[in-house]
Write a structure and sequence with these properties.
The protein is mainly beta. A hairpin with a 3-residue loop joins strand 8 and strand 9.
Length: 127
């Protein structure tokens, strides 16, 4: 699975809410917040999904699974937001797509050792 991200994150946070604790099996979730749209294009999009490597979950449709090819709203209404996206094989969380933003898990990005951008470091804790 490969994604493209255009632009810098708006912020990063540690979330300590009970939903994040249950989903991640940890005391908090580290999330980097990206706007879905920049002035000229979508800021976060799927480039490659070999072997249906992604699992989509939307509580809006009574806990049904939603399968889409790109991470942008579908004009036909088939794409239900918010949606949680995880690895189809291990269910490792990758990101949450909301109506106007994407909360990405930083571990889903590849950076050389010691080169994590400053924008990825959390500025706050939410509870």
């Amino acid at each position: 699975v490969r994604f493209e991200v255009h632009g810098d994150p708006v912020d990063a946070k540690f979330c300590h809410c009970t939903v994040c604790q249950v989903l991640h099996g940890a005391s908090f979730q580290w999330a980097v917040i990206f706007p879905k749209m920049t002035r000229s294009h979508t800021s976060f999009r799927l480039v490659r999904d070999e072997k249906s490597g992604l699992h989509f979950f939307s509580a809006e449709k009574g806990c049904t699974l939603v399968r889409v090819l790109i991470v942008v709203p579908d004009p036909t209404g088939a794409h239900h937001l918010p949606v949680k996206v995880s690895c189809n094989a291990r269910r490792a969380p990758l990101f949450d797509e909301g109506r106007g933003m994407v909360l990405a898990c930083p571990r889903a990005f590849y950076f050389s050792p010691g080169s994590v951008p400053d924008d990825f470091f959390p500025s706050c804790h939410t509870y």
